[in-house]
Amino acid sequence: PCDVRGELERIRDFFATQAEEAGLTLSLEAPEGLRAELNRPLFQQAVGNLLLNAIAFTPRDGHITLSASASGGILRVAVADTGCGI
After folding, report:
1. Are the C-beta atoms of 62 and 83 separated by less than 8 Å?
2. CA-CA distance, 81 to 53, in Å (whole number)?
3. Closest-CA residue to 55 (of 78, 6, 21, 11)
């Protein structure tokens, strides 16, 4: 099992400079201790791709939120932004 919040923190930190240069704020909403069986490289790639799209399509002074939650054995991970949507 992987620490989902820890993985999202690493992804956020990796893209933080790029988001900052684009004039965007980047936040994370995930509970401590959230764990799930993940293929780490695929998880990082999938969330990273969504985050790259959010950075590319969110106007300056926008906001991007990475979030994760679990309920009933189902993990939900989202990348939400204040951009135009694609």
Report:
1. yes
2. 10
3. 21
